């Protein structure tokens, strides 16, 4: 897992979150059946919804960057989709 955190961020200054859609990388060349890929997409969508539900208890979710808003971006890299 790769994580970027700004070491100088003042975390208490954030009261809003821009939660970008979760992306899946590497699925365009996947050899998995379409229904299996659809299952993965449902899992990603459920994960996004869970994040929204949990984060909205402590932060206001917004679609637009602004002062006091942190952006969260998540990408799932489909290593299973690659063939050597």
Characterize the structure shown:
This protein has 84 residues and is of the alpha/beta class. The protein has one domain (13-81). The protein has 1 helix and 5 strands; from the N terminus they run ββαβββ. The protein has one helix at residues 34-55, and strands at residues 16-19, 23-25, 60-62, 69-72, 75-77. It has a 3-stranded parallel β-sheet, with no helix packed on it. The chain has a two-stranded parallel ribbon with strand order 2-5. The two termini are 21 Å apart.
> Regions with pLDDT < 50 over 5+ consecutive residues?
none
Main sheet: strands, sense, barrel: 3 strands, parallel
The termini sit apart by 21 Å
Number of helices: 1
Category by helix and strand content: alpha/beta
Give the neighbour order of strands across the main sheet: 3-1-4
Question: What is the C-alpha radius of gyration, as a whole number of Å?
Answer: 16 Å
Number of strands: 5
Percentage of residues assigned to helices: 25-40%
The proportion of residues in beta strands is: 15-25%
The overall pLDDT average reads 88
Number of domains: 1
The sequence of SSEs as H and E is EEHEEE
What global shape is seen?
elongated
Oligomerization state of this entry? single chain
Can I get a quick summary?
The protein has 84 residues and is of the alpha/beta class. It has one domain (13-81). It has 1 helix and 5 strands, in the order ββαβββ.
Q: What is the topological layout?
A:
Blueprint: E1 16-19, E2 23-25, H1 34-55, E3 60-62, E4 69-72, E5 75-77
Parallel strand pairs: 1-3, 1-4, 2-5
């Amino acid at each position: 897992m790769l994580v970027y955190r700004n070491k100088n961020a003042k975390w208490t200054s954030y009261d809003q979150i821009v939660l970008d859609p979760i992306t899946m990388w590497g699925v365009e060349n996947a050899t998995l059946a379409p229904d299996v890929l659809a299952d993965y997409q449902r899992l990603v969508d459920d994960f996004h919804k869970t994040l929204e539900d949990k984060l909205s208890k402590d932060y206001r979710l917004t679609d637009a960057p602004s002062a006091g808003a942190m952006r969260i971006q998540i990408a799932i890299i489909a290593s299973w989709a690659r063939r050597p």
